[in-house]
Amino acid sequence: MIVYDKNLLDNLTLVEEANSLEAAGFISKEQKVFIKKELPAFKRQSNILVRIGFFLLGAFLYLSICGVIALMGFTTNEHSFSEICCYLFAIVGFAGAEFLAQQKYYEHGLDDAFILGALLNVGVAIAITTEGYEIQVAIFVAVASFFMYRRYLHLLSLLVFCLAASAVLFYGMFELGSIGEMILPFAAMLISAGFYFFTKRILNNLKESYYCKGLLLANTFCLVLFYLSCNYLVVRELSIDFLGSEVRPGEDIPFSFFFYAFTFIVPVLYLIQALKTKDRIMLWISFLAIGFSIYTIRYYYSVLPIEVALTLGGLVLFALAYFSIRKLKDNEAGLTFKPDRINNSYAILNAEALIVASAFGMKPEAKAPDSPMNYGGGGFSGGGSEGTF
């Protein structure tokens, strides 16, 4: 299914590991350059700004090809061509992505333009054919984006797949009528939790390293979807906008106590689990979820003026940060405030010298204490030999 040579994908993983080791001080820059020369790799851009530049160039090339096809098509039969033009444009995107993959372009920018352009045209083409039937558009986009990820290991395509699959779930529940609309938050919560544990299990047993980033992205998306599925603000506003529900003063949405509790309990559980498993991504998500939970209550209930609330919140965050630093600053393992081991850790920068010293039995040279006798002079043959005592 993957179009790329798997040996090149393995080489890319080794090169990324070499970059991490060089940044951590385990290997020298010359060793990293030697590793890159010895391992054949892709035409790839790790600099995000350069990659964006190549994406714009690829988008211009893609639009130019589609423009030529449009000029040729509209000169022959305007009505029939307008119905199939987006399908032709999607085919151009698939063909361009396949050609660039054969030329060993991977995460380069040019391939991004053709892959995303193909997915966009698939969605527009299905929308034109089905007259904007949302669930069918979402299904076809989900299938096309998943194919693009499996074929080209394109992370943005996997993100499009996650969004499209979520849209399929939501629109599918709307098709069930009032019952589906009522159980939509709970269905989204259960399905996202199920896929979270499913992707987590695959990650723990993963052998092909080139699938790691994609599974990690899907796993993170499930965490975000799980929290947002039953967040009080999201549920209430979506029920008003999409379902036409009306919440009068003094009333509330059904199961409001559950959604209130969910809004505050889940971020705390995320935080506890992140500290327990040392999961950095979950830790950042928990911080964002806590902030959004505070905003959720603040959106409906203004207990304090905004300036007072911000001041008190800042003081609380400062106190938490201060005491956390004091507690963790001396820890060498586990939760610690010291620099990341793989990112300029001062304890690791001298690892080579420590290993050499331990291997050869070398010890640091001890500094001799200063002598209590203060020698001076030395005009003739020794200390203090100038005829004075």
UniProtKB/TrEMBL annotation:
UniProt-recorded name of the protein: DUF2157 domain-containing protein
Keyword match Transmembrane: yes
Lineage: Bacteria, Pseudomonadati, Bacteroidota, Flavobacteriia, Flavobacteriales
Hydrolase among keywords: no
Organism name: Flavobacterium azizsancarii
Top-rank taxon, per record: Bacteria
UniProt keyword annotations, A-Z: Membrane, Transmembrane, Transmembrane helix
TM spans (from-to): 52-74, 80-101, 113-129, 155-173, 179-198, 210-235, 255-272, 281-300, 306-325
